[in-house]
């Protein structure tokens, strides 16, 4: 039976269209020594669009997350390498159905109020209530999970086995008591435990955060007195990449994500960057009954026709990375020791044979038809992604050689929403999901379809994957990852997904350094002299 989920559709669109995803390491240049750090000043980071509503319980877009993550914290921090380290919790112990967190001493909110274990429990129970429809509900927490507090200890219990219980609930952004009591107050203000609190808002322009002087509980023992921290952080809305690149070179801003042609001059200027892995070349298929890719032979044929080296070089802007997992977002659960799959070699002759076998034969005009209808593929891609169009043209050229009629469509956010969740009028393309673990991945490939309120917008029905997903969900924490990796291999082997290539989506640094496990970690920012 397909599982349903209440993850907001908008949250999925942020993962699909924008795919600002997770961890890969920074570039090879060595980090500055601590003696190069200078405390004070303003750290300015560019965001591509106005974050809008700042309520972290409802945050959806990457730009909103990039801003609100400057003010809110979680029980567990994730490093650039996907490791889990203490943050608000000093320690935790877990089984498959329970995790016990012990909080650090002396945690307070930016308004000076006490942050307690009861505050944590209230947050988790709020997120577990489907009536509140938070961003976290349905993907990392649901009504099977509850939390209680006793002193500085929080006990989280699941009525079902949950091998990832600690990391799932431990990485939820937590709100202080006042904000949780009235979440509407969080739309234009912050109420968290962060080292920086929101102090000024100019919508569409800048969001300014000021360092507090009583912070003592950061990862790696960071406090308000740690050398190199800025006094303020400013998130500045810069919608044009070239403008952001100019500001980086001039030193007017300290951080911006640059994915297009401007990278060359930033590299030439000697700027370093922190990188996040991006499944830029992921291809998904609409397997809904009546669409061409409902036939696994067609999915296999058109996948193996693609020259991954040629197309990957273009779509990854010359920096293609072999995909090693369908999990690309921190905390990179079940990525180590994988994958258990290999992508097939390019084989145009075999692709033609598979299409013939599927009944799509070549006519005198060179076009493949079946029952009098041409094999027409609607290939969609993200219009703002600079490399998508050129790579799509290469795919079209190859498929045209096979007699396939390939139609290219450049999508904006509205088109993604309509095609994937309403009309279902698409076939394949550069469509990505970017989960941080296999359970979230399964909500796309083993969940309910959109007409049933679910996230399986590809209409995948893979019995082998479903069986392994169910087995993994009830396995012990020690066994679960091996089973999940077997399940992932089933998706690859059945061509439910074809990861042509990944690349690094870089956030460039100018006059400062920082860590970026998913978004810039504010406690890691160090200003340079």
Question: Can you characterise this structure?
Answer:
The chain is α+β, with helices and mostly antiparallel strands. It folds into 2 domains: 32-71 and 89-276 and 507-527, Periplasmic binding protein-like II (D-Maltodextrin-Binding Protein, domain 2), CATH 3.40.190; 282-501, Roll (Dipeptide-binding Protein, domain 3). The chain has 15 helices and 23 strands. The strands form 7 sheets. Strands 18-17-19-13-20 form a 5-stranded mixed β-sheet. It comes from Microbacterium galbinum. Keywords: Signal, Transport.
Short description:
The chain has two domains: 32-71 and 89-276 and 507-527, Periplasmic binding protein-like II (D-Maltodextrin-Binding Protein, domain 2); 282-501, Dipeptide-binding Protein, domain 3. It is built from 15 helices and 23 strands. The chain has helices spanning 9-18, 62-68, 117-128, 165-170, 177-181, 241-250, 263-268, 296-304, 308-315, 348-357, 388-401, 413-423, 438-445, 463-473, 480-493, and strands at 42-47, 76-78, 84-86, 89-94, 98-103, 145-150, 153-158, 196-202, 206-211, 232-237, 255-257, 272-278, 282-285, 361-362, 368-370, 373-374, 376-382, 405-411, 428-430, 497-499, 503-509, 512-513, 526-527.
Under CATH, the homologous superfamily of the largest domain reads Periplasmic binding protein-like II
Arrangement of strands in the largest sheet: 18-17-19-13-20
Low-confidence stretches are: 1-29
Number of strands: 23
- Say what oligomer this is: single chain
Q: Which bin fits the share of residues in helices?
A: 25-40%
Through-space gap between termini: 59 Å
User: What is the rounded Rg?
Assistant: 24 Å
Total helical elements: 15
CATH architecture of the largest domain: 3-Layer(aba) Sandwich
Number of domains: 2
Which shape, going by the Cα principal axes? globular
Secondary structure class reads: alpha+beta
Strand proportion: 15-25%
Averaging pLDDT over every residue, what do you get?
Answer: 91
CATH topology-level name of the largest domain: D-Maltodextrin-Binding Protein, domain 2
* Main pleated-sheet profile: 5 strands, mixed
CATH C-level of the largest domain: Alpha Beta
Pfam family, one: SBP_bac_5
Organism: Microbacterium galbinum
Keywords: Signal, Transport
Signal peptide: 1-24
């Amino acid at each position: 039976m397909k599982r349903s989920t209440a993850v907001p559709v908008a949250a999925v669109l942020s993962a699909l269209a924008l795919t600002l995803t997770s961890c890969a390491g920074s570039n090879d240049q060595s980090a500055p020594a601590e003696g190069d750090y200078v405390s004070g000043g303003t750290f300015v980071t560019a965001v591509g669009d106005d974050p809008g509503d700042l309520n972290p319980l409802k945050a959806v877009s990457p730009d909103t997350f990039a801003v609100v993550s400057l003010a809110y914290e979680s029980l567990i921090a994730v490093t650039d390498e996907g490791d889990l380290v203490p943050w608000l919790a000093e320690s935790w112990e877990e089984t498959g159905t329970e995790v016990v967190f012990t909080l650090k001493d002396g945690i307070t909110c930016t308004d000076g109020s006490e942050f307690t274990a009861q505050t944590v429990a209230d947050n988790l129970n709020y997120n577990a209530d489907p009536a509140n429809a938070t961003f976290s509900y349905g993907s990392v927490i649901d009504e099977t999970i509850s939390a209680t507090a006793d002193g500085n200890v929080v006990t989280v219990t699941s009525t079902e086995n949950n091998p990832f219980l600690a990391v799932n609930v431990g990485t939820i952004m937590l709100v202080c008591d006042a904000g949780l009591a009235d979440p509407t107050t969080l739309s234009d203000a912050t109420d968290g435990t962060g080292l920086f609190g929101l102090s000024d808002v100019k919508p569409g322009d800048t969001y300014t955060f000021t360092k507090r002087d009583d912070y003592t509980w950061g990862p790696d023992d960071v406090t308000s007195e740690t050398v190199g921290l800025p006094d303020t952080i400013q998130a500045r809305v810069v919608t044009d990449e070239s403008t952001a690149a100019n500001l980086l070179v001039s030193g007017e801003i300290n951080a911006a994500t640059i994915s297009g042609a401007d990278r060359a001059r930033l590299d030439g200027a000697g700027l370093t960057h922190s990188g996040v892995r991006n499944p830029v070349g992921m291809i998904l298929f609409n397997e809904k009954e009546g669409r061409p890719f409902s036939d696994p032979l067609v999915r296999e044929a058109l996948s193996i026709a693609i020259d991954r080296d040629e197309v990957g070089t273009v779509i990854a802007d010359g920096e293609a990375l072999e995909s090693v997992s369908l999990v690309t977002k921190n905390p990179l659960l079940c990525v180590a020791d994988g994958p258990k799959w290999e992508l097939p070699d390019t084989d145009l002759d075999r692709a033609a044979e598979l299409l013939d076998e599927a009944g799509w034969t070549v006519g005198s005009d060179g076009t493949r038809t079946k029952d009098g209808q041409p094999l027409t593929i609607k290939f969609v891609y993200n219009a703002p992604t600079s490399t998508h169009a050129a790579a799509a043209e290469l795919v079209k050229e190859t498929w045209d050689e096979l007699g396939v009629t390939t139609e290219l469509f450049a999508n904006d956010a509205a088109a993604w929403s309509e095609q994937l969740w309403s009309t279902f009028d698409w076939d394949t393309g550069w469509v990505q999901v970017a989960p941080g673990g296999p359970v979230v991945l399964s909500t796309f490939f083993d969940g309910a379809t959109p007409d049933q309120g679910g996230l399986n917008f590809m209409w995948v029905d893979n019995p082998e994957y479903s069986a392994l997903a169910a087995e993994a969900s009830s396995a012990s924490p020690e066994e679960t990852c091996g089973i999940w990796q077997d399940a992932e291999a089933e998706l690859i082997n059945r061509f439910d997904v074809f990861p042509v290539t990944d690349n690094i989506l870089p956030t460039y640094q100018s006059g400062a350094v920082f860590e970026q496990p998913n978004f810039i970690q504010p406690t890691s920012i160090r200003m340079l002299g």
